[in-house]
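Colleagues,

For the teaching module next term, I've prepared a clean inverse folding example: a structure given as tokens, and then the sequence designed for it. I'd like students to try predicting residues themselves before seeing the answer, so please don't circulate the second half yet.
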């Protein structure tokens, strides 16, 4: 199993696998994967929501229900399925993996979604 590298820079190229989980469960899945030694990333954004007549700033995932992990696909799939999550696949049924640095990962994933 690959261990997390907490000193990773935003420009370091890695092979990320996209995972899907229930919306609002991203943080729990990230904690589970991090505890198992995986490097994870869930890009976040500030969103303004109206609640009880007031506008509030909330930090939410950029891609609801999605996060990214670096590691062996078979091991990640096994752990993800135990947490009610799944690896996203491409049109050919292969795991959706993106070779990118952390900084450009959201843009590359958004580009893949447009295809």
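(Answer key — instructors only)
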């Amino acid at each position: 199993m690959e261990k997390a590298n907490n000193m990773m820079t935003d420009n370091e190229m890695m092979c990320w696998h996209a995972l899907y989980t229930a919306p609002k469960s991203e943080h729990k899945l990230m904690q589970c994967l991090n505890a198992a030694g995986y490097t994870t990333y869930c890009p976040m954004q500030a969103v303004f929501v109206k609640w009880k007549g007031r506008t509030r700033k909330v930090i939410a995932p950029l891609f609801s229900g999605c996060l990214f992990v670096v590691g062996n696909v078979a091991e990640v799939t096994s752990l993800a399925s135990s947490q009610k999550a799944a690896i996203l696949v491409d049109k050919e049924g292969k795991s959706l993996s993106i070779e990118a640095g952390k900084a450009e990962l959201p843009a590359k994933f958004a580009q893949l979604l447009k295809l």
